[in-house]
Structures are given as C-alpha cells and as structure tokens.
C-alpha cells in the first residue's frame, strides 16, 4: 500500500492514514524531554506496557502525586480569585522555561501566605461584625432602658403627688411598713441582651414563654438594615432583644434557647461612653481589614497574571508522567521502552524530535526508533480541518471506520446537507438558517475561546454542517419555488395562463400553456391550483425513490472499492455483483420506468406494473407498457433477482472453508511480509475464523444467511424509507402555507394595525419556533437515519477505533 496514488493524488478523507507500530528505546536521562517533544508533535499514540500494574506500583507515581497536589493549589487560587472578583489572564505565558521544583516551592509559599491572610482577615472580619452587632445592642437596648427609666420616673412622680395630697395620718406609717417588708423579700432581676434572626423571632419568643412558664419579660426591637452575621458571614435581618428573668434556672434555660436559635448574646451596660469606645474600635478594625484586603488583592493579582501559564505547565507535566508510566523499564534500568502507533508520514518528524531531545538533555546515547511487524489492527486516523471535522463526527457517531476502509464522510459532506434540503426546501427559510450560521462563522474566533452552553456549543461545533444545509435548502427552495410558501417568477414568467376567471378553482385543465417551459424549478402557476398537491406529491415521491436508489447504489459501489483495496475477490464475486443485480433488477428498473414516464408523458400506472411484475409476470401490460419488449425485460430482471439471492448465500461459506483448509495444509512456514502488506491483510481479516485454527462452518453460514436476508429485506424497506424525503418535504411545505395563509394573510384582512402587528409577531414566532427549529431538527435526524441505516449498511463496517495521540494540544481544560 505504499503506492496509493495512480493517476490522481490520494484523498485524505477517503481512506485513513497508513499507520505503523513503532518501538522507541529511550535513555532515562532524556525520557522526560523526549515525551515532552512528542507531546508537542502530537502524532504518536502510546500503548500501555504496564497494564498489569496498579497506578501506585508504577515508576512515576510520586511525580504524578506531586502534580496532582500542585493542580489542587492552582484550583484553590482560582476559587479565591473568583471570590475576589478577579479574572485569570489568558495571554500566552512569558515564563516558558519555569522549573517544576521551583514552581512547587512558589505555589506552596503562595498557598501558605494566602491561607494565613484569609485566616487573619476572617478573624478580623468576625470581630468587626461582632462589634457592629454589639453597637446595635448598646444603641437599641439603651433606647429601651432610657424610655423605661423615663416612664418609671414619671410614674413615681405621679405616685408621690398622690401621697402628698392624702390627708390621712396613718398612711405614711403603713407605707413604710409595706416598703420594709418588700425590701426584705425583694428578688433580683437579671437580663440578657443580644440579636436573633428576624425569621426566628416569633418562635424564639414562644419557646422562651413556654420554657419559663411566662416568668420572663421579653422586649424585641427590629434592626432597620440587614446585619452581617459573625458566624456564617451572611447578611440577614435581625431583631435586638432584651430578656428579663428571675433565678439561675431561668437564666440557664434562656442561654440554651439562645444557642439553639443562633442568637448572639452581648453584655449591656448603661454607659454612654461604651458606645463611643465601640465606634472607635470599629473604625480601627475597618482600617486594618482594608489594609489586609489590599495586600491580599495584590497577591491574587500577582498569582492571576501567571496562573494560566502555571496551569498549562502542571497539566503538561502530569500528562508527561502519565505517559512515562505507560513505558516499560529495561532490564538494565537505564532505558525506557515505548511502543505506539504513528502515521507513516510522521516517521521523519518523530525521529527529529528524538534527536532534539537527546541533544538538549546532553544524553550520550540517542533514542532508538524502529518499526515493529504486528498482526494487530491499527487505529483509524483521518486528517480533518474545521470544515470536514463535523461531517466526520456524524460518521464516527455511528462507528469509527475500520482501518483504511472507504470512509462515507467524503460523500456525507454533500449528500447529508442535500438530503436535508430535500425535506427542508424553502429558500426563505434557507436564508434565515444561513444568516444564523453566518453569525457563528463570523464570530468563531471569539466564540471558540468562550464557555458556551450545551445547545449553543453543539450548534457552534456543527456550524459548517448547518451552513451547507442552508445553502442546499436555498437551492431546493428555488427548485420547489417556495419563499415562506409563496411562489415567485424569478427566472421567467409563468408558462401558463388561465382560460377564464375561475382559474384558481379549476384543475390543471383550466390552464393553457402560452409561453416556453419555466426554465428552472416548479412553475409558479402550479401553486394555488387544485392540482398543486397531486402534482407535487407525484414529483417528490418519484424524486425520493430516484435519490434513494442512487445513494444505495453508491453504497454498494463503495463495497466494491473496499473489496478491491483489501484484495478480497470473494466479496466482489459473491457480494458486490449479486447485490447490484438484485437492487437494480427491482428498484433500478423502477427508477428507469419513472424517468421513461417523465420523458414520454405516458399515463402508465407504475404501481400496477411493479405489483404484477411479481404476481403475473407473463401477462400482457396493455396500456401500462412504456417501451417495446418491456414484458421480456421484466421476466429477465425477475429471474436475475431470484438467482442473485442464492448467489449471495451459498458459495461464500464453502469457499471460505476451502481457503482455510488450503492455508493450514503445509503452510506453517511462510516468508515474512512487509509491514504495509501485513497491516493491509490484517485489516481485511473478518470474523470467519481467519485468526482461529478451527473453522466454524455453521457459524459462518448462519452469518452469511443473516447478511443475505438483511440485504434482501433491506432493499425493499430501505427504498420505502427514502419516501420520508417526500413526506417531510410535504409537511414542511404545508406548515408554511398554514402559517402564511391562516396567520399573516388573516391578520392582514382585518385592516387593523394592532391585529396586523400581533399577526406578524405570531407568524415570526411560529416560523422560527416550528419551521426553523423543530423542522430543522426533524429533517436533520431523518437525514442522519438515511445515512446511517440506508447508505452505510451497504459497505461500512465501522468496527475500528480512533487514533488518540499523546498531544498537548488535546489537553482538555477540565483535565486535572
């Protein structure tokens, strides 16, 4: 397979790149730098030669742990920066040659400094919040005490004046006696002040009353502005409370209730100087906190300028050590042995990377590069760009191509958007889709560096697929002559004119041809006539069958190219040829009848022709005859179709068995094949016992039987499946007509500006929501099904595995 060229240069996408299994023997002193250069190159997929060892038993487990710890510190810095409102710098790093050990020390110092600053700042902030609450308690409780004292003084004066006005001589003596007895029995009242969350204040009051059986006096005053809680650090609305109680037991109960409700308690003294002292301490703390925050912000700014570069460095180092852990240690413990897959074209680049690594690491011995012979199937690698990658992803979602089999992605670039457009044919809707996609393409540099939502990211990733879909939709819309369901005379005047005024209600008989045939697409005169639906139904149904048969034939042709490429003559003679005969004897013939009917203008009933081709092949066709000798041709085609079924089923299992027997008779010793020949033959190995000494004939025969039945039944069901092109095109067209006539024209007919504006808004939302979003998704999924099931099952095995090279460019942002 060294020469794939021929007359034309090879297509990069048609077959995957030629791969080779290589072995690298790398000296220990240059191993790290070698893997680093190979990561920059990104063209070597390493094999894990230590799969029997756990991650902790591998050589570089300690280094990976170090990198993991550094990554944790970097995540901590990022979290702190986000909390402080800083953004990380995305500029390319100036500090490219930073040493990992120095970085580890620097990160440790920064982390310790930041943790200490956070702890100090937290303590100061808590003290500041406590002082603020204490000040509120002093103010509110002071106001309460002042008002209570004022009312008590007033009351005492009133009582004094009453006593002075009493003329009784005995009264003072009695009062003195009462006072003396009261003073001897007087109970001391204690009080507790603090703040309680306002949402808990009612429950707090209720529990206090129940716990002390009403033997407390509670006074609550709401604080106007939200207060920052010293414990949680959250802003919340609170009430200042004062609880008067009697006795130690009541005090203990109140303290426990305060603790349960998260009420912060503060001492209260009726000293006006205390408020001024607390205010002074608050201002001092505020100054200290601001200075601390400024220092912390400066540190975070310094870290933020280099965080991205440090992050990339740590990720690279961690990935290098992960890769080094996949290498096996030589017996002498002086070399590391690596094996991996690389494209053949990358051989020179890999060797240059090895030489550079040996030179810059001052290694006395260079790394050894050699190609290994193997019977293992290589990975599949396609070189794609930003345009072709989305189409290749559509194919890969079904299954990754087997090594060097024909890639349907080449044809999908055209056939996928075209089949979508057949179902979505409206050049007005196509232009809307095109403009929406153009927004993503124009801003792709900016959007590619941003974090997008799931749906937006998916749409952005497939922007070129949607671009092609919109362009083909404009084309098919011009063919259908529909612009939001309205026809236009774009290319010429209509070829038809009306016989009389009742033309709109008449069938096509009411139209007479007065000009030359409309040059491109459907004549606008068909739209709105009573025969529009029968005419377009017939056109789109027949067109769907033609497109379906053409695409299925393309799939079978690609199976021929696969068989030729892999030198599998059995698949050519007993798969490709009978499949072509069977499909075209029935549905290829139907396609021919459609074209002949279009060209001749015949009135033959094709349903009748196809049904009676099976039921009564010898009957005369009568008025359904489209060309001379049609009956004979149909009998011959029917016989060919019947013969092709056993042709597919029987010979191949017996011939495979014979090949297996010949291969194992006296052929134990054979000359070694070249690498390319080995890989090519191995890629062609199938599941028919090729690699096994015992040949399971029954299993192979059943497999072939299933394959034959699947193709025969699939030929019918797949052709019918392409009728979805007609059905969805009709649905899209009719929905457009409904929205246009029943919303826009109906609103226009009222001659009212408000109704017209509402009608236009409803029309826009219905068009965007239903036709541009839901219908686009529906047509996309149906086009996807036609490619995966109807097209790819004719030739595509899709049982390969992707080439995943070790590349720094592929390091994901989320990787730790």
UniProtKB/TrEMBL annotation:
GO terms for molecular function: ATPase binding; proton-transporting ATPase activity, rotational mechanism. The keyword Transmembrane applies. It is found in: Membrane. The chain crosses the membrane at residues 418-442, 463-480, 543-561, 573-596, 632-650, 754-774. Keywords: Hydrogen ion transport, Ion transport, Membrane, Transmembrane, Transmembrane helix, Transport. The keyword Ion transport applies. InterPro entries: V-ATPase_116kDa_su, V-type_ATPase_116kDa_su_euka. It comes from the Eukaryota. Coiled coil: none annotated. GO terms for biological process: vacuolar acidification. Pfam families: V_ATPase_I. One of its GO terms (cellular component) is vacuolar proton-transporting V-type ATPase, V0 domain. It is a multi-pass membrane protein. Belongs to the V-ATPase 116 kDa subunit family. Essential component of the vacuolar proton pump (V-ATPase), a multimeric enzyme that catalyzes the translocation of protons across the membranes. Required for assembly and activity of the V-ATPase. This is V-type proton ATPase subunit a. It comes from Hibiscus syriacus (Rose of Sharon).
């Amino acid at each position: 397979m060294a020469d794939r060229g021929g007359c034309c240069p090879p297509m990069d996408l048609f077959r995957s790149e030629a791969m080779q299994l290589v072995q690298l023997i790398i000296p220990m002193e240059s191993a790290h730098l070698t893997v680093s250069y190979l990561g920059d190159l990104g063209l070597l997929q390493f094999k894990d030669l230590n799969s029997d060892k756990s991650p902790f038993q591998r050589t570089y487990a300690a280094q990976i742990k170090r990198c993991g710890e550094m990554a944790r510190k970097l995540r901590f810095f990022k979290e702190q920066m986000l909390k402080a409102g800083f953004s990380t710098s995305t500029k390319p790093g100036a500090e490219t040659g930073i040493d990992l050990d120095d970085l580890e020390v620097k990160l440790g110092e920064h982390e310790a400094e930041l943790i200490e600053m956070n702890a100090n700042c937290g303590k100061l902030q808590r003290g500041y919040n406590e002082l603020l609450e204490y000040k509120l308690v002093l103010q509110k409780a002071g106001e309460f005490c002042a008002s209570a004292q004022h009312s008590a003084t007033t009351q005492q004066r009133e009582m004094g004046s009453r006593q002075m006005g009493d003329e009784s001589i005995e009264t003072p003596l009695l009062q003195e006696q009462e006072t003396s007895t009261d003073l001897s029995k007087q109970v001391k009242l204690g009080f507790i002040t603090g703040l309680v969350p306002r949402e808990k204040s009612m429950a707090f009051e209720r529990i206090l009353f129940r716990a002390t059986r009403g033997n407390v006096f509670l006074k609550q005053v709401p604080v106007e502005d939200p207060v920052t809680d010293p414990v949680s650090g959250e802003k919340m609305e609170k009430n200042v409370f004062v609880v008067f109680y009697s006795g130690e037991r009541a005090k203990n109960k109140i303290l426990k209730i305060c603790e349960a409700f998260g009420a912060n308690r503060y001492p209260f003294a009726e000293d006006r100087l205390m408020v001024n002292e607390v205010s002074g301490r608050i201002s001092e703390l505020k100054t200290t906190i601001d200075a601390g925050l400024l220092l912390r912000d400066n540190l975070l700014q310094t870290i933020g300028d280099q965080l991205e570069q440090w992050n990339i460095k740590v990720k690279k180092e961690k990935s290098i050590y992960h890769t080094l852990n996949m290498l096996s240690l030589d017996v002498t413990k002086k070399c590391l042995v690596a094996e991996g897959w690389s494209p053949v074209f990358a051989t020179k680049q890999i060797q240059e990377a090895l030489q550079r690594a040996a030179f810059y690491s001052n290694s006395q011995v260079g790394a050894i590069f050699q190609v290994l012979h193997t019977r293992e199937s290589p990975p599949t690698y396609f070189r794609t760009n930003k345009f072709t990658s989305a189409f290749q992803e559509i194919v890969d979602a079904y299954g990754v191509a087997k090594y060097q089999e024909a890639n349907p992605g080449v044809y999908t670039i055209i056939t996928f958007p075209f089949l979508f457009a057949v179902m979505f044919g409206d050049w007005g809707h196509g232009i809307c889709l095109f403009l929406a996609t153009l927004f993503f393409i124009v801003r792709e540099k900016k959007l590619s560096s941003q974090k997008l939502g799931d749906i937006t990211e998916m749409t952005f990733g497939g922007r070129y697929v949607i671009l092609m879909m919109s362009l083909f939709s404009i084309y098919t819309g011009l063919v259908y002559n529909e612009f939001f369901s309205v026809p236009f005379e774009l290319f010429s005047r209509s070829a038809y004119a009306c016989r009389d005024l009742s033309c709109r209600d008449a069938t096509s008989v009411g139209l007479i041809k007065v000009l030359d045939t409309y040059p491109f697409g459907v004549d606008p005169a068909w739209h709105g006539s009573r025969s529009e639906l029968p005419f377009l139904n017939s056109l789109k149904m027949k067109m769907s069958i033609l497109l379906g048969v053409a695409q299925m034939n393309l799939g079978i042709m690609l199976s021929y190219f696969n068989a030729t490429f892999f030198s599998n003559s059995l698949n050519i003679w007993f798969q490709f040829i009978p499949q072509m005969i069977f499909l075209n004897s029935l549905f290829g013939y139907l396609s021919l009848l459609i074209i002949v009917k279009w060209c001749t203008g015949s009135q033959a009933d094709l349903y009748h022709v196809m049904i009676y081709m099976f039921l009564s092949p010898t009957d005369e066709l009568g008025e359904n005859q489209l060309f001379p000798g049609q009956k004979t041709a149909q009998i011959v085609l029917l016989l060919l179709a019947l013969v092709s079924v056993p042709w597919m089923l029987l010979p191949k299992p017996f011939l495979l068995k014979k090949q297996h027997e010949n291969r194992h008779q006296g052929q134990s010793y054979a000359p070694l094949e070249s690498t390319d020949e080995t890989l090519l033959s191995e890629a062609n190995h199938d599941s028919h016992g090729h690699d096994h000494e015992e040949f399971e004939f029954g299993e192979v025969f059943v497999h072939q039987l299933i394959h034959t039945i699947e193709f025969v039944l699939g030929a019918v069901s797949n052709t019918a499946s392409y009728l979805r092109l007609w059905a969805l095109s009709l649905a899209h067209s009719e929905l457009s007509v409904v929205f246009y006539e029943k919303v826009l024209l109906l609103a226009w007919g009222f001659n009212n500006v408000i109704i017209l504006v509402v009608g236009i808004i409803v029309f826009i939302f219905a068009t965007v929501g239903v036709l541009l979003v839901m219908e686009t998704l529906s047509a996309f999924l149906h086009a996807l099904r036609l490619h995966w099931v109807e097209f790819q099952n004719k030739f595509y095995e899709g049982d390969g595995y992707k080439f995943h090279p070790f590349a720094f460019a592929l390091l994901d942002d989320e990787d730790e």
